Amino acid sequence: MLGRNTLNLVNCFNLGLYVIIPSLAFALPFPQDFGFPQRFNYLIDAGLCWESNSLFHPLSLQPDNISNTTTYSISPKLYRQLMLFSDRYNSIISDTTEHGWIIGQGGIEARGQTGPDRLYTKTAISPFIWGKAGFKRNWYADFVLRSSNEARSLDHYTGITRDIARAGFNTAEFDRLALGYKNDWANVEFGRGREIIGPMAEDNLAVSGGAPAFERLVLQAHCRRYAYRYFYGFLESLSDSGRNIQRYIVGKTLEYNNHHNLVIGLTELSILAGWERSIDWAFLNPLALHIEVEQNERDNQTTNDENALWVFNLDWLALKNLRLAGALLMDDFQLDAADRKKAQDQLGYQLHIGWTIIRHPVVLTALVDYVSIGTFTTQHNHRWTNFVSRGKYLGNSIGNDADLIQIGARLIFRQPVVVEMSFGQRRWGDNSLLIEPYRVRSTPVYKSFPSGQVRTNRFFEVLVDSQPMKNLAVRINGHIDLSHKGLDSEMECWTFMLRYAHLFVI
Question: Rounded distance, CA 500 to CA 312, Å?
Fold first, then answer.
């Protein structure tokens, strides 16, 4: 039993789960994979669990802060796995003083793809294990280890495929491996992971869930409605004309969160690069501003091999059933009239609308998404300062020099099934960093957008997310081309996923 002080929380969909939380500081961040971010996003879209909402992802369920939650008669099986982690985690934290503890999940995934744009043809088998270990409440270690016989089947995976297989698997990677300390107001962490910052659970403008993981130092502090997060990370080492180019990323975000219906924040992101460039002590200062350091020449390079962009993020529950989320990315903004005649602003936009029309007996949410990222946005004169890593784009999945608009609907049934359907159009041009990640930016003059040959794909997408059993999840994603035009514009593909996972507590 969890004790007499256990909070009897009827969660957002009348899930009937009982959770104890000793402190906000000990809320469990869910792992990025295994369906957790998507299912939490279903709740946020429906106007629920906003006490746990934030710009920093993956989110942590904080039921000690939830009050007067409206309940609905939706099957508890849909989110049982999501809530079970908080239940188990907080029960062992409340009982732990001197002894260590481990909580995690191990299992195996099977994936298959079909369609003209499929990445692989064979059935991909991928065992995984996620775990979090702790000692004396405040200290923790966190890891996700994945292996597979087909590296292209795994999301945001950068492990190298080997010529020789072991037990049938030829690639493996720690997607997360970190050590940290966390108390009521601060969090310090060092290790491998990724930064996902913005209103959306995965696909934000500047740093998203699809980016490669990297080693980084994270400092975060929060006080009531304010939080500040800083990170300094090493992206990669590349060879250029016989020289070793070291690439780093630095980020700072100030967030305001009323824990009710509004989250806003401003993010500064910097890419640092240079020949044999070491850690830059000026940028290691968590309070230093990029422009101030660069303009006063306090960085450790004389060749100006760094670049920055800024993102304003907004997540607003305008009505109890209407979510408006968006972001504005500013990479280069022309203040002078003379400069404006020569060059265009380098901007990016993102808008997400979730309007929950019906809440009983099923949940029906209408969805609208719009993303536009300029031709030269996130791309710079020094190719090593482009916002990419290990050949992959760090930001939104559409890349730069592209736009996307789609409308759709999501249905959450009484049974543990979510069905989402949408129609949309995606366009992208020759300058996309998805095509050539380390492309050098040409002189930014006014030109058509998207640039060059425009690829256009009009589509219908469908998603079925189901958990028919406690340890078994089934997911089907389908992209059907209604029409496509341009080189490599075909995107039709179906992905089928079957996952078995078992929760363990030690």
Answer: 39
Question: Would residue 30 count as lying in a domain?
Answer: yes
pTM (2 d.p.): 0.89
Structural domain contains residue 32: yes
CB within 8 Å of 248: residues ≥ 6 apart: 232, 233, 234, 235, 271, 272, 273, 277, 279, 280, 283
> Is residue 85 domain-resident?
yes
> Tens of pLDDT along 67-81?
334 434 444 445 555
Q: Domain count of the chain?
A: 1
Instruction: Pick the closest to residue 385 from 269, 276, 473 (CA basis).
Output: 269
On whether residue 389 sits in a domain, the answer given is no
Helix (H) or strand (E) holding 111: strand 100-114
pLDDT digits (tens, 9 = 90+) for 162-221: 988 888 899 999 999 999 999 889 999 999 999 999 999 999 999 999 999 999 999 999
Residue pair 128/104 in contact by the 8 Å Cβ criterion: no
Distance CA 449, CA 428 (A): 8
Mean pLDDT over 336-349 rounds to: 72
Return the SS3 of 177. strand
The two structure tokens encoding residue 436: 């050539």
Between CA 395 and CA 374 the distance in angstroms is 13
Residue numbers of the domain that contains 70: 1-50+59-96
Beta strand extents in 200-305 (DSSP E only): 214-223, 226-240, 243-257, 262-275
- Asked if 357 and 368 count as a contact pair (C-beta separation under 8 A), the reply is no
For the residues of 401-470, what is the DSSP string, one character each?
Answer: SEEEEEEEEEEE-SSSEEEEEEEEEEEE-TT-TTT-TTPPP-------SS-SSPEEEEEEEEEEEEEEET
